[in-house]
Amino acid sequence: QVQLVESGGGLVQPGGSLRLSCRASVTIFFFDVMGWYRQAPGKQRELVATLPSSGTSDLAVDVKGRFHISKDETKNTVYLEMNSLKPEDTGVYYCNGRRGWTDYWGQGTQVTVSS
Fold first, then answer.
1. Fewer CB in a 10 Å sphere around the end CB: N or C, the chain?
2. 91-99 and 109-113 strand pairing
3. Which residues lie closer than 8 Å to 37 by C-beta, 6 or more apart?
4. Whole-angstrom Cα distance, residue 55 to residue 3?
């Protein structure tokens, strides 16, 4: 069974940093693309960052220059490094793995940016 487990969320002040981790129960080579999405209260889930199994990463416009997605294949883990956090970055962050037409999701981790 494929599982994705996120960790690393929490409360941080504006301008601060957090690193989210997403550990897969299978090798991350299983996925064609891995990524991070977020959902703010009252809003739809939106794409934050993607990392294809081969190729370059991509970031949403409003996080470019602040966030970075990376992976450690030896640990079957994908990371989202978040810097210069803003209150509007608050939300539940979900890890996603896509293989063909199938999406796999983690349970989400809460990120709150507030003073």
1. N
2. antiparallel
3. 45, 46, 47, 48, 93, 94, 96
4. 24
pLDDT given at position 78:
97
Q: Answer yes or no: is pLDDT of 20 > 90.
A: yes
User: What is the distance between the alpha carbons of residues 84 and 17, in angstroms, rounded to a whole number?
Assistant: 6
pLDDT digits (tens, 9 = 90+) for 47-81: 999 999 988 999 999 999 999 999 999 999 999 99
Residues 6+ apart with CB under 8 A from 30: 2, 24, 97, 99
Give residue 17's pLDDT.
98
Residues 99, 31: contact at Cβ < 8 Å? Answer: yes
How far is residue 56's CA from residue 27's CA, in Å, rounded to a whole number?
19
Give the Cα separation of 8 and 5 in Å (integer). Answer: 10
User: Which SS3 state, helix, strand or coil, does residue 62 take?
Assistant: helix
What is the per-residue pLDDT for 55? 80
Query: What counts of helices (H) and strands (E) characterise the chain?
Result: 0, 11
